[in-house]
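Minutes, project check-in
Item: structure for the 193-residue chain
Input as provided by the requester:
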Amino acid sequence: MLQYIIKENGRHSVAELAQKAIDGGCTWLQLHVPGMDDAEVRRIADELIPVCKDAGVILTIEDRPELAKELSIHGVHLTGAYPGTARKVREDLGPGAIVGTQVGDAQSILSLRGADIDYVTLDPALSIEKDAEIIRAARLAGSDMPVVIAGNVTPDTLPAMLAAGANGVAASDFITNADDPVQAVKELLAIKP
C-alpha cells in the first residue's frame, strides 16, 4: 500500500500533484498542511476533493480531525504534533472514518488494542533497523495492526522497508520533487515485497 503525503511544492498545485499521483496508480492521498489556517486548507480541499472523488481515491488529512469531518473526507492521520488522542478522534469521527496515528515503539502499538485505529505509522526519524525491531516486537506480542513506514521512501529504500515487515509506506518528497511524478509513483508501485 502506498500513501502519498501531498503538499504544495511551488511547481505544481496540490490538485495537480494529486492528479499526477492518481495517474501513476496511487489510491491514497494524505494532505500535509502544517501551519496553514483552516481557510487556506479549505481552498486547497475545494480543488483536491473532486479530483479524489472522481478517481475513487482515499483522501485523509494530517492532524485536522475537525476539518476531516467538516469536509467529509475519508479520515485523518495523527502525527506526533497532534495534541489529542487517537481514541478520542475515533469517537469524534465515528466508525466509518479512517484513523491512523504515528507511534515510536511497539508498546504504543500494543496500547491501541481495542481502540479501532486503522493503522499506525512509525516515526520517520527512526532507522529501518529500528522499524523492523518495533514491527517484530509488536507482532510477537500478538498485534496485527497494519504498520506504515514513512520517511525517505525511494526505489532504493522501499525494499528494506517492506522487508522490515511494513504493510505499506507513506512517500512524499520522491514523488513531489520528481521531474515526472506519474513515473515516480509507478516506480514505487512496481516494487513488491
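Outcome recorded: Strands lie at 2-6, 28-31, 58-62, 75-78, 98-103, 119-122, 147-150, 168-171.
No further action items on this chain.
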